[in-house]
Specification:
It is built from one helix and four strands; from the N terminus they run αββββ. It has about 60 residues and is mainly beta. It starts with a helix and ends with a strand.
Length: about 60
């Protein structure tokens, strides 16, 4: 069984899911929240963090 990380290594064009603490992560700051880019062109998908916890995904 392949892990998500191994599957991502098969396609180098896939953007790796970066944590909000990574300096290369695409982040949008909203007061009290961080939106971290996951994937997608239109619409873009973002993971939503409050403090250090992921609370959802928006697109």
């Amino acid at each position: 069984m392949l892990s998500l990380q191994a599957a991502q290594l098969d396609d180098p064009r896939e953007k790796i899911l970066l944590p909000p603490t990574d300096p290369n992560a695409e982040i949008i700051e909203v007061p009290g929240y961080k939106l971290v880019y996951v994937n997608g062109a239109c619409p873009k998908n973002y993971r939503v963090y409050k403090a250090h916890s992921m609370i959802g995904v928006i697109f």
